Amino acid sequence: MEILKDISIITNSAVDPNELTFNSLKLGDPISSLNENIITGGPFANWYHTNIGITYKVDESENVIEVLLKDELITKLNINQKGQIESHFGGPLSIENKGGYTYYFYPNRSMVLSWKNETNELQGIYIGINTIKETCYSIGDFLDKYFEFKSLEPDTRNWNVKSLKGNKPRYIRLLRLNSFIKAFGLGEELSDFLNYSFVEKLKPESATEIKDDIKQFALSNERLKERWEYDSERLNSPRNYQMIIQQFLRFIEQMNKTLKFNSTWLEASTLTSQYSINKTQNVLKSIDTDALDNIKRILCNLIDPEKRKFTKSQLVNNFGFPNEDLEAIDMDNY
User: Fold this and answer.
1) How remote is the C-alpha of 211 from its chain's centroid?
2) Can you give the pTM of this predicted structure?
């Protein structure tokens, strides 16, 4: 089934993408089989561009693993508005707005459709081992978003929908954080995370890793060995880990700020400014970021020992996650 002869084939959900040909090439075929005369550039990030409306992505063996259908080729589908996508291709597993585009995911068909919002047109159809993936979030991502939000809005009195309604970038971020709070079972809204009410719900087994780490630390120090015998039973109560959670959160936040110390410089033309940046940056380079990452890992495993991950569509459908394009909102409110 040759795409160049009839591109409407791809709208048929029963068609196996591995049976499709793209100017006689199938997924898995070597790119060397392609007529060199139609190649206009590449490989750029493993993509070969052509003049026939098909771009080919290859793996390390130079075999085709994904194709991008675009330009005059996809205009033959006569899709002129977003609403027509589902009428042509059926309902996607999920839809995401990000980076100025709306993506429609059809994983069972190894397909992603990309709609460019600025020009209001279908930008491309990706088929194969899709480069564009559904956004997926872990508890670590929640913490990153939490620290980001806190740096934008340090006054906790404003951490509510009413106060931030007029500030769309912060408002959307707050709603997203509230969604994370629900998804990871930390409460109903961000205030529940602030008062550490979720600690009471931690199961003893969730503290296994950190308890072993504390034991190793204690037994390596003669002065603390007796203390371990005295305190080990108390560590079966999750509430005893609240102080560690608080300390780790404060420490990670402070270290994030420190590591970004020179990030506010857009340009440093004077000798004195370049000197000061160099001296401070050399100190920052000496910080053991691997050790910092380990602290964050321990914290994440304590808060979410199940190491759960949620796709953006799961959060949208089940936990009220806003699907707006936050990058575009930030640009509009810059």
Assistant:
1) 30
2) 0.84
